[in-house]
Structure formats: C-alpha cells, structure tokens
Design brief:
Layout: E1 5-11, E2 24-31, E3 34-37, E4 40-44, E5 54-58, E6 62-63, E7 71-75, E8 85-89, E9 94-95, E10 101-102, E11 104-108, E12 120-124
Antiparallel strand pairs: 1-2, 2-3, 3-6, 4-5, 7-8, 9-10, 11-12
Length: about 130
C-alpha cells in the first residue's frame, strides 16, 4: 500500500561534501493527506548522584485536529562523564485559549554512570 507523504529535507553541517558522514533532517508535513505537527521539549533532570542533566528534542509527528499523543526520544547532556536516554509518549493534547495545545511528558532516564543511577524528568512540550 502506498501512502502519500509530503514534507521537506535540509542538509546539516557538512552537506558541502567536506564531511562524508553528514546527515539530513526530514520534516513531514502531511501523511496520507492529513496535516501533521511536532512539538519541541526541553528541561533539566532531577538532581541524583550529585548532578543533573539537560535535555532537548522534538517529538515525532502526529496528526493535527484529532485526539493524539506524540512519541519522543533524546539523549541528555554529558555530565559526570556519562549521558542518559529519555524516551516515552506524551500525554494527550491540552488545549489553550488561542486554539493551540501542548502535551505533558515525564518519566525516568535509562540507568547509566560509573555509579549506576537514573534521573526523573517532567515538563511540557512547546505549543
């Protein structure tokens, strides 16, 4: 089955051919004729094992105009010589007065570090 997808792609640093390991970012704007959207998310983890980590990323696309959630994945900053993975699904859309919406996300990082531990995170996506 063919599903029509539209969007755009742009090259990241190194796209001039000077870096053979360059990459591209793909932004999907519609899936099977329906508009999709993403949200940014960022924050600071809980203070555990003497430190915190920063994190930021973009959710996966989801359809616009229907009840939905978004999956997300990112890596934290490197602090105390290690980093953690953050992944999960947002909560349902929370409407705001101007007609937009945001989502809540929370959970625990993967267990990492010389002294194995994890961190809690909680926040909201961008609008």
């Amino acid at each position: 089955m063919d599903i029509p997808v539209s969007g755009f792609m742009y090259a990241s640093d190194g796209s001039d051919g000077s870096d053979p390991m360059h990459s591209h970012r793909l932004y999907i704007t519609s899936w099977d004729g329906r508009a999709v959207h993403t949200h940014g998310f960022s924050g600071i983890t809980s203070f555990d094992d003497g430190h915190t980590h920063q994190y930021a990323g973009m959710t996966e696309p989801a359809q616009t105009g229907i009840p939905h959630t978004h999956r997300y994945f990112t890596l934290t900053s490197v602090d105390n010589k290690h980093r953690h993975q953050i992944q999960g699904s947002t909560g349902p859309a929370i409407p705001i007065a101007n007609g937009g919406h945001y989502h809540e996300c929370s959970g625990y990082t993967t267990i990492e570090g010389a002294n194995p531990h994890r961190h809690f995170y909680r926040g909201n996506t961008t609008l």
